[in-house]
Amino acid sequence: xxxxxxxxxxxxxxxxxxxxxxxxxxxxxxxxxxxxRPLVQRLLASxxxxxxxxxxxxxxxxxxxxxxxxxSILVVPHSQIPQLIGFNFHRGFMACGIRPPMPLxxxxxxxxxxxxxxGWTAVMLVGVQDPENMGSIFRSCAALGIQDxxxxxxxxxxFARRVLRVSMGNAFKLSLHRSDSAIxxxxxxxxxxxxxxxxxxxxxSIELRAYRRSGPAMVLFGNEAHGLPQECIEAxxxxxxxxxxxxxxxxxxxxxxGILLHHVCRIA
Length: 268
Prior knowledge:
The protein is 26% helix and 21% strand. The chain is an alpha/beta fold. The strands form two sheets. The chain has a seven-stranded parallel sheet with strand order 8-7-6-11-9-12-10, with helices on both faces. Strands 1-4-3-5-2 form a five-stranded mixed sheet.
């Protein structure tokens, strides 16, 4: 293994891990941080490139059986890690990954050679800003076999540390796309005969149990406080709602996503 014992936390090789409490590697940095042993292991098992792995010196011996030979292993004394990252850290491991390209959503190119399968399901998020919600939605998508996730305007960074942690590394399994205009993306989706479904409490929406799909589908989820923009609801083929009891007026978006996606995928 390429084990490198770091004597000073000012070493430039540690720059991606510096002051993580107040600094998040952004989209423009080309990197992201995964923290904890399970997350680092799932990153290593993915198709994504890993630049380096930071190891607490106290945990090095335990990790010699699974750390990769081809990746730089940066070993830092336990007492210096809080000063480096900006908070107490007891997870033992972090990794700096290289962000994969996030292509513009182009379903017409994706399904250029073959028609979109009838059972194909995708998700579009518009304005989802809470990292825990996005991470939970990613986890549900992976569990249900939903590969394609489209991130519309005003969404939180899908590679933020909290998103990755809550997703339990399942974000690494997904094909993430970006959309600069949800309406334009919906129009392209409709040209392929893909049904768009808005998760909303609109008067025209239908109760989830009454919905029966007839082909490929994309389900849209909106902002935690305001839901989907009205223009997105109107542009979708139909709206879906979950009827609630005991005077409950809404569900957390990640909870609603799990319920809706399970039903939509189950009846595919």
